[in-house]
Amino acid sequence: LPTQVVEALTRVYAECLSPLYQVDTHGVVPCWVASDKLETAARTLRPKLMELVKEFATPFPKVQRMTVPWTHTKLFPLDEDRILSELKPDPPEPLDSWKPGTKAALELLHSFATPKNLAEYGKSRNDPVAGVQSDLSPYIHFGHISVQRCLLEVSKLKSTAADKTLKEGVMSFIDEVVVRSQLSDNFVFFNPHYDDIKGAPLWAQQTLNIHAKDKREPHYGFAALEAGKTYDELWNAAQLQLVRDGKMHGYLRMYWAKKILEWTKSPQEALKIAIALNDKYHLDGTDPNGVTGCMWSICGVHDQGFKERPVFGKIRYMNYPGCERKFDVKAFVRKFPGAAENAVNVAKQGMLPFTGRAKIELKGVAEGGDSDRVASILTKKIEQQKPQNTISGPATTKETAQTKGSAKKRQRKQSDGDLAPPRNEGVDVEEADVNAEEDVHLSE
């Protein structure tokens, strides 16, 4: 459990003079066994974790019939209608597209864990249009199925994976469901500020504070963001997917959170809104994966520094054209009616990040035809008119020498925030490959 939850429960049980025992079955290896410290990246956790997985990922023993008679038919009254009615002011809407329970989870796992599906997963897992994710994370979150069960099932294909794409799919899924998940567990267990800017690495805190007062235009409040009413049709579609389906594609979770940083008045507000929307609408909300994903996107947790730019500082940047190079953005937007229309309506109302002539021109674009065609033109034009130059120029000779001189230091394991990551001076952050092995922070 996250440290804040454990501390709160400890106080409650202390008043009752009752002991509290924590048993970790959220992953395969208990997080305090997997590591005894806060890890800085997947690469530092992976080797020792995967060695321990060999010991812990054993077949489940058969359930034994209970020999002691059970006399209690009900432990406590459960009035679901009353409980839901007390969740005010926002009782959750039912999601008929999801079937709960272990039986449903096992059916989903078995339908996913086939050579064909895992090969497709290996090729297209970061494509929101392809629809190849396992969708197991809500079931794992609520304990309807365990990570260990998923690992054992998918691993059956590992030994027979002669096809390179299938092997990549198997290994990618294992890395996501085991390593990435346990990296998130590690973060919320060892970092008491896991949902606050103070929980970010030192370099990220510094760069976010430096740019905290940078001008944000436009500025969207919680209500507009919750309704998916921004000038960005892709962001709107991602938000509508979250609200309507109870789950947003993992790749888009990164884009979604980074845009919230771009459009809100401060990093603190961005993080607060992102976590609130994540916890309210994601079926796997409140999971360590969710909050860690928000911290990755907004606060640079488990990531590295990039060239400096307004608002983001050295935090990795993502934009609409970059997503277009990764997948068919329009095909995804069309899946969620209202996303493009909302973008055009926002532009017609003049809620755009420009003034004067540029604003008039963009409003004219918004008036110029059907929403499906206009929304993408509008979003691209807005992205093009934003200042694209980064603040820091190319590395000087002195900086290059310092970088080379400190390369060996950076190769050593670092305590969180002790040393700023490499700045990637030669990398255009719009081109940064978030598919790279150490970059993704998705959720199955």
From TrEMBL:
Keywords: DNA damage, DNA repair, DNA-binding, FAD, Flavoprotein, Lyase
Keyword Nucleotide-binding attributed: no
Start and end residues of each stretch annotated as Disordered: 381-444
Residue spans of biased composition, Polar residues class: 385-405
GO biological process, one term: photoreactive repair
Domain of life: Eukaryota
UniProt-listed InterPro entries: Crypto/Photolyase_FAD-like_sf (IPR036134), Crypto/Photolyase_N_sf (IPR036155), Photolyase_Class-2 (IPR052219)
The protein's Enzyme Commission number: 4.1.99.3
Protein name: Deoxyribodipyrimidine photo-lyase
Species: Toxoplasma gondii FOU
